[in-house]
Amino acid sequence: MNARTLLTMALAAAVAAGPAVTTALAAGEMFVPLLVYRTGPYAPNGIPLANGFNDYFNLINDRDGGVNGVRIAFEECETQYDTKQGVECYERLKGRSPVLVNPFSTGITYQLIPKAPGDKIVVHSSGYGMTASADGRWFPWVFNFPMTYWSQASAFVKYVAQQEGGTDKLKGKKIVHVYHNSPYGKEANPTLETLARDLGFELTLLAVDHPGQEQKATWLQVRRLNPAWIYVSGWGVMNQVAVKEAAAIGFPMDHVVGNWWTGTEADVVPAGEGAKGYKSMTFHAPGHGFKVHQDIFKHVYDKGKGAAKREDVGEVLYNRSIINAMLDTEAMRLAMTRFGNKPLTGEQLRWGMENLNVTEKRLEELGMKGMLRPLRMTCENHEGNGTAAVQQWDGKKWTIISDWIEPMRDVVRPKLEAAAVEEAKKLGYVMRDCAKEK
Amino acid sequence: MTDLLYLVAVAPFTDMAGSPAFLVEVLLGGVFAGLMYSLVALGFVLIFKASGVFNFAQGVMVLFAALTLVGLLERGVPVVVALALTTAVMVALAFAIERLVLRPLVNQEHIILFMATIGLNFFLEGFGEMVWGANVKRLDIGIPDRSFIVRGVQINQLELTAALTAAVLVTVLALFFQKTRIGRALRAVADDHEAALSIGIPLKTIWVVVWSVAGVVAIVAGVMWGAKSGVQFSLSLIALKALPVLILGGFESVPGAIVGGLIIGVGEKVGEVYWGPLVGGAIENWFAYVLALAFLLARPQGLFGEKIIERV
């Protein structure tokens, strides 16, 4: 064996050992994989989402020493918002024994839902994913709090009714839903169709194909229909083009309402002044004026560990991301009160998610008072009791302009339960009895 | 069955006859969109004409040009200077591509050159993002974006400007190819590399010129598409819109890119508006390809493509 062979063998051993060294968890750590998309066509949305998670977990680790002393280890994996790559990331990072995953893509969520019970990894699709999975009796491992697409769509209709002067005034009104032609974009359709039948408004569904760079035909149809309101469920470049097209045809922008994935700073940039008045749904406040932001500046950015540019802290998607991370860590904290201050198993964290109760007082302690409404989960209800609001773009910033709107739970929940039965059957799931688990 | 036939073969035409102003609007929308597709297709055609290479990186060149322009504008550079500097960057890129990518691959199979452009695509994509960032950027060079109405037909100023720009660009390119020495040399290279070399036409210079011109076309396409959707990564995906145009118009014809663009633009808009609702909408992307393939059945080389006859 010559020196060259020895060197080669040593290098090969180092390479083989490398991943084991970098991926090993230190004692007292919990691992959370971050499926991010910092590159690709959806990067403008993916970057603030990824940054928020990084900053909040760093805040918890550096300010508090972790969750009750258990540090959060996290690692990014680039999905480019591509379902196949997302599943690859999940499979790769599964080796580090995570107990929780935030897929940040409805497509990836659909693929991970069947894997969750076997892997014992909680799937948290916060404000996205499969609506039917909010029925915890059928989908114990999936959570979509603070709200589902269906609840959101019902809150939008409720808002329109308020603006029109009452639910009875919706009769005969035309509402158009311009949606991304994907499982995500189509999610709101069943709820809107039900409400159109029940409340008597005329609903037109207009699909836009990925990526949505060219939407002329869609907006020609909108112009011809001349609806009273437009609801947009888009993502990526589709959002920017939709806002721009709506402005270009002279549609009153305060009657165009995006869902909460269609109401970010990036969505209104290309339209410039034309985007003024554009609205979107949201479940939290924008801006960096909350105490949690001051803590992030002090404990993360001032130490040079910030993931975003300082001026981007407080963007809509950034805030959504830190709220998502906060809900996850609060569930960990709650689970530790029962199972002890040590790294949790998937089942233990699932208990924490299912019993999560973020009160007004707790929000104040977290520096998030006024940023979102209190939230409570149950075994049956995995979307919780979330409420929505409407925000409006004034040309410079987003501002919340409505009260918090309760979704039409009486309409949504029965449909959701029926859908859960259908979806669960496909996966061969059995309904559990939540009464026995209390 | 009768109902279906009525919905497919009668109702759309009744609809068109019932509101002619709307039909004109749809047709105009198609013409404007088609010219925008042509702008992208032109870049492909230019390079294919000169080297027989399908430049996979053309879409990213559009993105890179737009990113460079908007990056300069964001740093306070005046529009005219920024346009000149962006042109200089695209010309420099053409030199670099000729020196580093094409020259080492002279006499290689076309598929090798095609693979090289795939590499170039990913390099430019990553490099552009690294230098200018991945955020959505507003491109405002003063083109108005409001609509006006003429006899009940709504016309968008930005789209009208883009259409006129495309028309001017095509005219200039046609004159360049037909009337200038370098244009004629370029056509000679396109016809036969070796014959062109044997009569003293410098292949390297021609490649630099043609990649530079494709770069300038990419700037124009980037400006127009960037003004429409903001400058962002997705701009590179507009290459997908140019493919059916190329299939239809032929890979080596400038007029083909224009006529192909118009047919695809009008065809997909009319298809989406009048037939799309029958199948739930969102048909325009694949409808464009179906349209192009239908033409191919009748004319495999495309509308204006050259019929290749090889003696064996």
What would you say this structure looks like, in words?
The complex is a heterodimer of chains A (438) and B (312). Chain A has 438 residues and is of the alpha/beta class. Chain A contains 17 helices and 14 strands. In chain A, helix 2 crosses helix 12 and helix 2 (43-64) packs across helix 13. With 312 residues, chain B is mainly α. Chain B has one domain (21-298): Orthogonal Bundle (ABC transporter involved in vitamin B12 uptake, BtuC). Chain B has helices at 2-18, 20-51, 58-74, 79-102, 110-132, 157-179, 181-191, 193-198, 203-229, 239-249, 254-275, 284-298; strands at 147-150, 153-156. In chain B, helix 2 packs parallel to helix 6 (157-179) and helix 2 runs antiparallel to helix 9. The longest helix of chain B has 32 residues, at 20-51. The mean pLDDT of chain B is 89. Chain A binds chain B through residues 38-41, 43-44, 47, 181, 205-209, 211, 213-214, 216-218, 220-221, 223-224, 236-237, 240-241, 244, 247-250, 266, 269-270, 272, 274, and chain B through 19, 22, 25-26, 29-30, 32-33, 36, 126, 129, 134-140, 145-147, 154, 156, 158, 225, 227-230, 232-235, 237-238, 241, 268-269, 272-273, 276, 280-282, 284-285.
Keywords for this entry:
heterodimer, A: 438 residues, alpha/beta, Rossmann fold, 7-stranded mixed β-sheet, 3-stranded parallel β-sheet, 17 helices, 14 strands, 45% helix, globular, B: 312 residues, mainly alpha, ABC transporter involved in vitamin B12 uptake, BtuC
Short description:
The complex is a heterodimer of chains A (438) and B (312). Chain A has 438 residues and is of the alpha/beta class. Helix content of chain A is 45%, strand content 14%.
